[in-house]
Amino acid sequence: MKSKKSDNHLDRTALLDQLWMYQNQYGCIRDQDVEECSQKLGISKIELEGVISFYHFFHRERTGHHTIYLNNSIVSETKGFQRVKEAFERETGQRFGEQDPSGEFALFETPCIGLSDQEPAALINFYPFTNLNSLKVRRIITDLRKGVHPKAICDEVPDHVNYTPPKDKTIFFREYHPGVAVSKLVDITPEQLIEEVKRSKLGGRGGAFFPTGMKWEFCRKEKENPKYIVCNADEGEPGTFKDRVLMSEMPGLMLEGMITAAYAVGAQEGIVYLRAEYTWLLEKINNVIEHFRRMNLLGKNICGIENFDFDIRVQLGAGAYVCGEETALLNSLEGKRGEPRTKLYFPTQRGYLNKPTIVNNVETFCAAARIIELGTDFYLQTGTPDSPGTKLLSISGDCFKPGIYEIEWGTSVAKVLELCEAEDPFFIQVSGPSGECISMSEKNRKISKDDLKCGGSFMVFHSDRDIIHILTNFAEFFKHESCGICTPCRAGNYIIKRKLVKLSTGLAYKRDIAEIAEWGKIMKMTSRCGLGKLATNSLLLAIDKFPKYFKKKLDKKGEGLNKNFDEEKAVMAYEKFRS
Amino acid sequence: MAKKIKFKIDGKVIKAEEGRNLVTVAEENGIFIPSLCYYEHIDPPLGSCRVCTCNIDGHAGPACMEKVRDGMEVEVAKPELEDVRKSLVEMMFAEGNHFCPSCEKSGDCDLQHMGYEMGITNTRFPHLFKDRLIDFNPKRMVIEHNRCVKCRRCVEEVLTKDGKQVFSFCSRGNETVVGIDYDMEAQLTEDEAVEAMNLCPTGAILVRGKSIARPFGDRKFDYESVQKPKAEAKPKKNGKPAKLEKKTIATISLAGCFGCHMSLLDIDLGLLDIIELVDFNKSPLTDIKEFTKTCDIGLIEGGCCNTENIEVLREFRKKCKVLVAIGECSIWGGLPAMRNMVPLEECLEEAYLDSMTTETGESIVPYHEDLPKILDKVYPCNEIVKIDHFIPGCPPTATHMWKQVQNILWGDQFSILYSEFKYD
Ligand SMILES: Cc1cc2nc3c(=O)[nH]c(=O)nc-3n(C[C@H](O)[C@H](O)[C@H](O)COP(=O)(O)O)c2cc1C
Ligand code: SF4
Ligand code: SF4
Ligand code: SF4
Ligand code: FES
User: Fold this and answer.
1) Does residue A4 register a pLDDT over 90?
2) Domain limits for position A458
C-alpha cells in the first residue's frame, strides 16, 4: 500500500522496507544507497545514518553471503551457546563481529530470537536453525559452502503447544475457523462491541495489562481521522515466544482481532509490526492476509457491513528490543529511530502519523477475537474473577518440556513447574528480564493480575545456575538495547553492568550491594520508558529474595582500606616492559 | 488570553497562566528546578536528561514536560528528589570525559553550572573513561564527543535553510553519539555555526577560530548562583570561640601537579593564623617525610597512578583520622586521567619509544625494581581507600580549602560561597 510515490520521492513510512531492500541485495547499506535514499527522502545523510545505526540488523559494512545471528540470551547460554559459538567460528574460519574479507560468512550475536524452547538457536539469512550443537553446525556450514540454500536446510520450527485446559475452558488453542469472529460483527454495533470487551476485563497481554476495552473506547472517542490499528508483534522480551506460536498456528485469529478493533474504533488501516527475527513467518501471514481479502474479511464493506473498509499490511522491524515499546514502535513505523516518545499523548490520541492509534499485543488481539467468537460469558467462566480467561506462558530453561502452556489465570507456580517438569527449580524469572524473579518459597503464588503478573516469559533455572551470571546476562541485554535517549538508562545500565562484574569477581563490599539497590531505584524513578524503569527490577528483587547467595559473594570486612583493590591486575599492563 | 490558574510548589501557592511550562513558571517565582536539556524555544520539550525530575501530583516525572494546570501539586525541594537530580548530573560526569580545566566552555557550561548549584563534589558512580573520538572533520566545527550529554538540542534546532538536520543521534544505548553531517555543516553560515555552539549546553560543539573561552570572572557562571542565597550564605562567625584545640595536619601530593599545594599557600597572611591553629606533620610544606604521630586530618592531592601512590595513600588512611581529597585529580583522576581512555602500553610506547625525539631501537620503557610500577589507569583516591570529604577545583581556591578544613576540624563555622566552588 504505502510505497514509493514516484521514482525520486520516497515516503518516510516506507523507509524500513527500502533499507531492507539494500541490506538484502548488497549485504549492507552502501554509501551510494545512503546518498540516494536521503535524497529521495529529502533529509540529510546524517539523519538517515541515525536511523540505520539504530537497528542492529542494518549494516554499513558488508556482511556475508551467509549472515548468521546466534542467540546469546540466557537460555541459550545455559544450553551450550559457548560451544556452538566456537563451532561456528571453527567451521567458518570467521570470528564473531568481525568482517570476512571473502564475504562468505558473517557472524553476529543477537538477543533472544523467540526460539527459547529449542536453544541454542540461530538465524541464517533469517531462516531458523534450532537445537544447535557442534555436529549440526558442521553439517550446516558444509552444506552452505556447497551452495545449498539455507531455506532448504533450515529447521521446521515446532510449536510445542504442550498444555491446554479442558476443552470447555480453552480459549486460544481450540479449533479455529477463519471468519467466524468477524462474522459476529454484523449483529452488533461498535459500542456494544466495546462494552463486551470491557465486560470481559481483557487486559493487555504485552505486559502492562492496560484494559483493552478502555483503550478502544478512548480511541473511538477521538475526532481525528484516519485511525490506525497496530499489532505489536515485536515480542522482544527474552524468553517469550507465545506470539510466534500464535502467528504460526493461527495468524488469522490475530488478523480477526485487528479487524474487530478496526470495527470498534472506525479504523481503515492496520499494520502488523513483525520483528525481523520472525521474517520466516512473514510469507505465512501475508498469505493469510491475501486469503482474507478474497474472503472479504479485509477490503471494502467487510462481511457486507456498509462502509466497513479495512486492510492490513505487515511491517518488518530491523532488530531493536525497545521498538516493542508502543511509542518507539510508532516512531519505527514512521521510518525514524525507534526511540520512545515523551509521554505527552497516548497513542490513542496521537499515534501513528499523529493520528489516533490502537496498539495491542498479538495475544490481546487473539483473545479479543475469541471473546467475540465464543461470547463474553464463555470467556468469563475461566480464570479468576479479576483475571478471567487463560494466559499463554512461554516456558523455557531447566525443564523437560519447554514450550507453550495455555493455563487458566490463577494457576499456581508450583502447578506450572509440575506441568513443564522442571528439574530442581531454584530461580524462576517471570515475564522476562524486565519482569520479576521468584524463589521456591513463592511457589504457591498464583499467576494473575493481582498476584504474580506474567507477560508470557517463564524461565526456569536450577540450583547450579549462578544467579549473578543470569543477572549479568540481563544487564548486558539492557545495556545493549537501551535507546540511549535518557541519561539514567543510557549511563545507568552501563554502570550497573560494571558493578555486577565486580560482584562476580567477589570483590564487592556490602556497600556495593546497597549502591546497586540505590542506583536501581534512581533508574526506576527517572527513566523515560519501561526499559530503563524495569531494567534493574529483577536485580533489586534478587538481592532481597536470595540473601544467602549474595552474602556469599561479599567480602566481609571493610575498614576504610579497599583491600580488594587488585594491585596485581592494575600493574599487569606495565609488567610487559620488564626486560 | 490564557486562563489564570493557581497551583502549588512545595506548598507555596503560585499564580500563572494555564499551560505555561512548569520550569519557567517556577523560575519566575524564584524556585529553582535544575534543568539541562530544557530550552524554552524547543516545543515540545525534549525530556532527555531527566535532571528536572520532581514529584508532580505524587508521581516522579520530568518537570520540563509539564504544563501548569489548576490545582496541580509539585514537590521540588524534597531531599530524596534533590538527591535523585544530583545523581543524574553525577551520572553525566561519570559517563562523559569532562576535564573542565582544559575545556573551552568552562565557566559558561550548563552541566558544570548544575554541578555548582547542586554542590556536587564527587560522583557516586565510577567514571567510565570510555574512549571517544573528537571529530575534526567538519569544515567549521569540532565535535568533542567526550563532553556531549546527549541532550538533543542540536538535533532538533540546528537545521539548514531547507530544513535538513545537521546533527543526528547515531547508534544506540551507551554507544549513542551525536553525528554531524559534513555537507550540511558546510552550508551553515558562520553565525549559525556560532549559534549552534552557544545552543549546546556543554563544550561539545566548538567553532574553529571562535573561542568561547573567557577570562576567569567574566564567565557566565562565575559569581552568581541562580538560587536565592540561603540565609547563611555569608560566612557566619558565631563570635570567635574562646580557644580552639590545636590539631595536626598532614598533606601529600600523589599524581598531581602540586597546584593544590600552591593554592593552599594562596591565603597569604592567613597562613599565619592557620599556623596558630594547626601543626603540620608529614607534608611537602614542612618537608617532614615520615609520620611522627596520628594526625587529625590528611589532605590528599592527586590520584594514584603508580604503586608508590597506593602505598602512601594507604599509610595516610591509617595515620589520619579524616582524609580529604583536594582537587579534581584526587577526586576522580583529573587531568592525569586523560590517559585512562588509552591502554597503558600505547601511552608508554608513544612516550618512550615512538615519540619524535627518540631514535628507533635506542630507547626503552624504564623498568627497574626500584621504580614504582605504573598502574593500568589513574585511580581516584576513593577507589583505593575511604575518603571522608571532597574539595573540588583545579585547584580549589585557598579560601574554600581552609574554610572546609576548619569546618571539619572544629565544626561548621563557614559556608562555602558559590564563587569559591569551582571545577577549574
Ligand atoms: C521496553 C519495552 C518493550 C516492550 N516490548 C513489547 C513487545 O515486544 N510486545 C508487546 O506486545 N508489547 C511490548 N511492550 C508493551 C507495549 O509498550 C504496549 O504496552 C503493548 O504493546 C500494548 O498492548 P497490550 O495492551 O495489548 O498489551 C513493551 C514495552 C516496553 C517498555
Ligand atoms: S528508558 Fe532507556 S530505552 Fe527508554 S527512553 Fe530512556 S534510554 Fe530509551
Ligand atoms: S566545562 Fe562543561 S563540557 Fe567542559 S568539561 Fe566541564 S562539564 Fe564538560
Ligand atoms: S552536542 Fe551539545 S547540544 Fe548536541 S546533544 Fe550533545 S550536548 Fe546536546
Ligand atoms: S530538563 Fe527536563 S528532562 Fe532535561
Assistant:
1) no
2) 390-462
Task: Find out whether A387 and A394 touch, Cβ atoms under 8 Å.
Answer: no
Assigned C-alpha cell, B188: 551553515
Residue B58 has pLDDT above 70, yes or no: yes
Residues A364, A444: one domain? no
**Contact A344/B at CB under 8 A:** yes
Q: Which of residues 34-73 of B touch A (CB under 8 A)?
A: 44-51, 53, 60, 62, 65
B contacts of A342 (beta carbons < 8 Å):
44-47, 65
**In CATH, what number is assigned to the domain containing residue A88?**
3.40.30.10
> What residues of chain A, 241 to 260, have a C-beta less than 8 Å from chain B?
none
The reply to whether CATH 3.10.20.740 applies to domain B4-77 is: yes
DSSP 3-state of B230: coil
Question: Distance from the CA of B26 to the center of ligand 3, in angstroms?
Answer: 26
Given this model, what pLDDT does residue A557 score? 55
- Are A374 and A282 members of one domain? yes
The owner of cell 511509542 is A327
Across the interface, whether the CB atoms of A342 and B65 are under 8 A apart is answered yes
Give the three-class secondary structure for B19. Answer: coil
Considering A153, A186, A203, which residue would you say is the last residue of a domain?
A153
Please say whether the beta carbons of A536 and A434 come within 8 A: no
Atom of ligand 3 nearest to the CA of B106: 1
pLDDT tens string A432-469: 999 999 999 999 999 998 899 999 999 999 999 999 99
Domain B96-207 has CATH 3.40.50.1100: no
Residue A14 lies in a domain: no
- B345 CB neighbours in chain A (<8 A) are 573, 576
Chain B interface includes A573 (CB < 8 A): yes
Q: Where are the domains of chain B?
A: 4-77, 96-207, 237-348+371-410
- Of A360, A380, A400, the residue that ends a domain is A380
CATH code of A259's domain: 3.40.50.11540
Give the DSSP H or E segment for A192: helix A190-199
- Locate the ligand 4 atom nearest the alpha carbon of residue B169 and give its number: 5
Q: Say if the ipTM goes beyond 0.85.
A: yes
> Which tens digits make up the pLDDT trace of A479-531?
999 999 999 999 999 999 988 888 877 667 778 888 999 999 999 999 999 99
Q: Tell me chain A's radius of gyration from C-alpha atoms.
A: 24
Residue with cell 524473579: A437
The ligand minimizing its distance to the Cα of B104 is 3
B374 touches chain A (CB under 8 A): yes
Q: Is residue A47 part of a domain?
A: no
Q: Is the pLDDT of residue A2 over 50?
A: no
Q: Within this chain, do residues A113 and A216 fall inside the same structural domain, yes or no?
A: no
Q: What single letter denotes the amino acid at residue B407?
A: N
Distance from CA of A153 to the nearest CA of B (A): 34
pLDDT tens digit string along A13-29? 999 999 999 999 999 99
pTM of the model: 0.93
Mean pLDDT, residues A133-159:
93
Q: Which fold has domain B237-348+371-410?
A: Rossmann fold (3.40.50)
With an 8 Å Cβ cutoff, are A44 and B168 in contact?
yes
Q: Do B383 and A46 touch (CB under 8 A)?
A: no
Residue B247, C-beta contacts closer than 8 angstroms, at least 6 positions apart: B277, B278, B279, B296, B297, B409
Ligand nearest to the CA of B52: 5
pLDDT grade, residue B223 (50/70/90)?
Answer: confident
Q: Which pLDDT tens digit goes with each residue over A300-312?
A: 999 999 999 999 9
Q: pLDDT at residue B233 above 60?
A: no
Is A485 within 8 Å of chain B by CB? yes
Residues in chain A: 579
Are B47 and A342 inside 8 Å of each other by CB?
yes
Nearest ligand to the CA of B220 is: 3
Dig out the grid coordinates for A138 from the structure.
558442521
Higher-scoring residue by pLDDT: B359, B184 = B184
Dist CA B269 CA A196 (whole Å): 85
Q: How far apart are CA B229 and CA B242, in angstroms?
A: 29
DSSP state of A75: H
Q: Do A562 and B152 touch (CB under 8 A)?
A: no
